[in-house]
Amino acid sequence: MNEPLPDLKIALEAARKGVKTIKEFKNKKLNTREKGHHDLVTDADFATEAAVLKIIRNHFPEDEILAEETEAHEKLTDARTWIVDPIDGTTNFAHDFPVYCVSVALWEGKQPKVGVVIEVNRNEEFTAVAGEGAFLNGEKISVSDTSSPRDAFLGTGFPYNDLSLVEPYLNLFRHLMDEAQGIRRPGAATFDLCCVASGRFDGFFEYSLQPWDVAAASLIVREAGGLVSDWEGGDDWLFGERLIAGNPSIHKMLKERIDQFIPEPQRRALIKK
Question: 206 near 186, Cβ under 8 Å?
Answer without folding.
Answer: no
